[in-house]
Protein: propanoyl-CoA C-acyltransferase
Organism: Desulfomonile tiedjei
Amino acid sequence: MAKVAVIGVGQSEFVRSYPGSIRELAFEAYRDAMKDAAINSEQIDATVICSAPEYDKQRTPAGLMAEYLGLNPQPTFYVESVCSSSSSGLRTAYALIASGLHDIVVVLGFQKMSEITSADSQERMGRGADIQWEAPFGTMMPAYYALYARGHFEKYGTTEEDLALIRVKSSTYGRINDKAVFRKPLTLEKVLEPNYIATPLKVFDCCANADGSSCIILASEEKAKSLCKKPVWIKGLGMATAPITMTERDTFSGLRCAQLAAKRAYQMAGITPGDVDVAEVHDCFTIAEMMAYEDLGFAEPGKGKDLIRNKETYKEGKIPVNVDGGLLSKGHPIGATGGSQIRTIVLQLRSEAGEMQVPNAKIGLVHNIGGVGIYGNVSIFGVE
């Protein structure tokens, strides 16, 4: 298999209400990534644009972005797998380069969630479920993940305090991330205040919608070595899917798509979970991070709570997770989220993460989930 590297990364600030247009929002991440890669638009062979279209007023935003960024007439693709769109975009770009079709590909993710009202946003999220058998009954994302939290609690004895400890960790690192929406530390007592959204999940167990963009630039081995002093190589990619309807699921204590995607990524990379130095996981809810510890093999099933209780997922721990604050602190601009996670890992592996830096990080992992475990992407990166 041909080698493919990340040669540039960029991200806008994640905010609750961006004042400009989606093209201006996307440009912020693109500009930063192009500066990081030190290339110009004429060197880009193709572009992969990623968002969840139900939140976009603009039909076919890929065409809009290509025009605005000066990337015509190169090929432009549009990729969507809801919350994991830009990780699916990474997989697409990797394939385009590994096949020999292109040498340098931009993966640009964006979402302006404030384009529509909160009520409309929640209704459209609900339509991420089966619109015949589930969505008409008012299913929403917090309720779905509350279902998984209940399943995990009953099977393994996990508690609300265990989940709250994850949110406390998130706020610890969100405070030092200048791209994050929420930058105030939270106490355990504050997180445990009984402001329930969907029992047992409370306000601080849930991430918030945000506006934002992210950009990743990939290159072939030859181009990466000639253009980049610190290429970060894609070592493993795993992707899997699961039934969209909850009645077809066989467990509510873990996400099968994540488990299978992780297995495939580890196999491709030739590593085990114990080789990972730093990870970014999809913590749309605190229970999602808890399940990720176990789905990725960082802990045995039911033992994820021991990792957070012992602070093993802090920067100084055995397996640092979401030391940029995760979705819980950064916010969740759906199409941009995966690219933001990838950016964090690339900075970690280049030893450019500042206060968030994990010492001697050589292998990093990104776990990005679409919907309630409908799509699972696991991507592994290395510096050698």
